[in-house]
Specification:
Distance between the termini: 74 Å
Structural class: mainly alpha
Strand order of the largest sheet: 3-5-4
Helix content: 40-55%
Radius of gyration: 28 Å
Shape: elongated
Number of strands: 5
């Protein structure tokens, strides 16, 4: 067994991994369950194998999460082994982040040496969006880890010309597809072009390998989708957010064309003109398309006001405890504008163009920090390695791989008008970090040369300083004096050291021009110190932004870190570090259901998942989200729902929140035919506007009065209103009538 030597390199990578672990794990409890839509699904998946395989959102297998299974399978396995709680479902992503840092170091080291690998690792570890995604149960960093393994296999395939490594690489991309669908294919150009341009074997063989690999890729990618779609609809949950109850349509539609800004479904989401402006989601005077509203409701909701908690035991026997939400999960986050009121929660809303990721929005300070260094670093590497279409060594292969990963994504995120969120930018973090590390090492070698390329290093460092200064200007007014001073000192050091490096380079040119016999070697030590100080200065600001996630919980559904998160906390825009005050506020509903539910298949029917997730997380009870996530999925017709009522499968329906399309018809019928349950029986706080209903006659009269004003009922169901807009109906009498 090879002993681990205590070398500078091993000590350095160990410190970098410790840094990454601290940023990803420290105080992770403040994140609660993260995205409660996903957390509820994972809870349901731990209850039985059917829910697990189909990625069911609810314990009753009524509707699925609208994502593929692999990422949530991993979370469910962790939850099953360690017990279902917030940290157990966040743990896989945090671990994936740390492992990704080591992988980027290892892959870059293979081609450009340990220093380049170490710089790449530290750059990735402090990239704000990467840290934010690592501290949340969104599955993007599990995808990043999978794709990094695919890159490792691809480099072996390109260097050695062995098809098995290409097949392994594309198999891993197929697995990535089953984590986040088409997002995994963003690395496709890098893998295909890099392998085709490699020169280890004849082109004809490479093309054959590509065709076979593509077949493997598609087979792995679509394996789960084909199996699920072959299962009769009555034997599985409805495919959430699909229009025809198929995974293939979900791939092409909601998770495909809509992300490109085409193929939008006009019947999805809120109508912007009628949408009630929940202060947790909607920023005044911001126009959002129907599909963007649907996506906001899905990935940016913080749950409806029906956030219920109970001390009841979970269905699988685990203690539920109190339903802890992330401390800022109910605060105004700017809706379409992000946590600090900046535009960019829906990336396609911001002005498309090359400057999008550098502009004042909620995208820029998530990823921009190392982009100039990465792009100039690639230029330096391409010049030094004489990069051409023939990739005949491992350094050229590495350069091609990373730039072909970075540039297509940079173009997509800069110009797309489709749906995407800031945390999707974590996909750009690995190639940007890799090229930054490669660039610093390569530019250092060129800096000590005698050509014009020696200017690339000081110029790139100065540009990095200006980018840091630009980011500071966007958020400085809301930062504390101490943080602002630290950043200003770092910027000053960056400009100072970069300028001195430029001056020393100029002096070297003058010496050579005058044929002075003075050697530049005596300046090498000084230049190394200056470069080291400059690098620390450049890393300081993104590190401060990333470390903000330790003390300020990220938005649970659109996780971002950076100076925006820090400035939002400094100006008092959120109650960071505190639990939501309404935890347990409506536990009386759960007590009511527990006392009255007997043989019904579903304990409760609600318009959408947003009214169901907290109950599922807390108790594991089967709650039917009638319209799926957004309330607009056409899962049941009115006749089918009546049949379920007749068969005694459902009894209680909680109206209010979001219900549109077919589900709105059902909710209207419920309001017209159900018996209204007095608020005092299921709410801890009775509405001031609610009449005091004392007996069954009052209930009947109240129901009749409500039926006379259908528009009023519809209004109650039209938006994620407060508890006063929610009404509980009992369908027991109607079931007897239907029989």
């Amino acid at each position: 067994m090879k002993k681990l030597k205590l070398t500078k390199e091993n000590i350095s990578i160990s410190l970098i991994l410790i840094l990454s672990a601290v940023l990803n794990f420290a105080n992770i409890g403040i994140e609660g369950y993260g995205n409660s839509y996903y957390a509820a699904g994972v809870k349901s998946m731990t209850l039985n194998l059917k829910n697990f395989f189909f990625v069911s959102f609810d314990p009753g297998s009524f509707v699925t999460i609208d994502k593929p299974p692999m990422g949530f399978w991993i979370q469910a396995l962790f939850a099953k082994i360690l017990g279902f709680n917030g940290w157990s479902i966040l743990l896989p992503q945090a671990l994936a982040g740390v492992i990704s840092v080591y992988l980027i170091y290892f892959i870059v080291k293979k081609s450009f040496g340990s220093v380049a690998g170490l710089i790449s690792g530290v750059c990735l570890s402090v990239t704000p969006v990467f840290v934010a995604a690592s501290r949340n149960n969104t599955i993007d960093n599990l995808l990043v880890l999978t794709l990094l393994f695919a890159c490792l296999a691809l480099t072996l395939a390109a260097e050695k010309g062995k098809a098995k490594y290409l097949y392994l690489s594309l198999t891993l991309v197929g697995i990535g597809f089953n984590i986040k669908m088409l997002e995994a294919y963003m690395i496709g150009p890098a893998i295909y072009i890099t392998y085709l341009l490699s020169s280890s074997i004849r082109l004809k063989k490479r093309i054959v390998h590509i065709f076979i690999g593509t077949f493997i890729l598609l087979s792995v990618s679509l394996s789960w989708a084909f199996i699920v779609d072959l299962v009769p609809a009555q034997n599985r949950p409805y495919i959430g957010s699909s229009t025809d109850n198929s995974v293939m349509e979900l791939i092409v539609g909601h998770n495909g064309l809509e992300r490109l800004g085409i193929g939008s479904k006009s019947n999805k989401g809120f109508n912007a003109s009628n949408n009630k402006k929940d202060d947790r989601q909607i920023q005044n005077n911001t126009e959002v398309s129907n599909d963007q509203n649907q996506q906001m409701n899905k990935e940016n909701y913080n749950g409806s006001t029906n956030r219920m908690a109970s001390g009841a035991e979970n269905r699988d026997g685990q203690g539920g405890g109190s339903l802890q939400k992330a401390p800022n999960e109910g605060i105004p986050d700017g809706g379409p504008g992000g946590q600090g009121g900046l535009q960019g929660t829906f990336g396609g809303q911001t002005k498309a163009g090359i400057a999008r990721l550098f502009s004042k929005n909620s995208l820029s300070d998530q990823i921009v920090w190392f982009l100039p260094l990465a792009l100039l670093g690639f230029v330096a590497g391409a010049i030094k390695e004489k990069l051409r279409l023939k990739l005949d060594n491992k350094r050229k292969i590495s350069l091609a791989l990373w730039i072909l990963w970075l540039v297509p994504e940079f173009i997509y995120f800069s110009y797309t008008t489709g749906l995407f969120h800031p945390y999707y930018l974590t996909m750009m973090a690995p190639p940007a970090a890799a090229l930054a590390g490669i660039g610093i090492v390569t530019m250092w070698k060129l800096y000590n040369g005698k050509k014009w390329t020696s200017w690339l290093l000081p110029i790139s460092l100065i540009i990095e300083g200006f980018v840091n200064m630009m980011m500071l200007s966007y958020f400085s007014n809301n930062l504390s004096d101490s943080i602002r001073k630290i950043i200003l000192i770092a910027l000053l050091l960056c400009f100072l050291t970069s300028s001195i490096l430029a001056i020393l380079n100029l002096l070297s040119f003058i010496r050579r021009k005058n044929n002075t016999n003075l050697s530049d070697n005596k300046d090498i030590h000084l230049k190394k110190i200056l470069l080291g100080i400059s690098m620390v200065s450049i890393l300081t600001v993104p590190f401060i932004g990333s470390s903000a996630a330790i003390t300020h919980s990220v938005n649970s559904t659109i996780p971002t870190a950076g100076l925006e998160l820090l400035s939002n906390g400094e100006r008092g825009g959120a109650s960071f570090g505190k639990e939501r005050s309404d935890n347990g506020k409506n536990s009386k509903l759960l007590d009511f259901l527990k006392s009255n539910i007997t043989t019904e298949k579903y304990s409760l029917v609600v318009p959408s998942s947003q009214s169901a997730d907290s109950i599922i997380i807390q108790t594991g009870e089967p709650v039917m989200a009638l319209g799926g996530f957004s309330g607009s999925d056409k899962i049941l017709s009115l006749d089918e729902f009546k049949e379920m009522v007749k068969n005694g499968e459902v009894r209680y329906v909680l109206t209010g929140g979001m219900g549109r399309g077919e589900s709105s018809e059902i909710l209207k019928w419920v309001a017209e035919n159900g018996t209204l349950v007095p608020e005092g029986q299921y709410k801890d706080v009775v509405s001031d506007n609610e009449p005091n209903i004392k007996d069954s006659n009052d209930i009947k009269n109240k129901s009749k009065d409500d039926n006379q004003n259908v528009n009023s009922v519809r209004q109650n169901m039209g938006g994620p209103g407060g508890n006063n807009s929610e009404q509980l109906y009992d369908l027991k009498d109607e079931a007897n009538i239907l029989k």
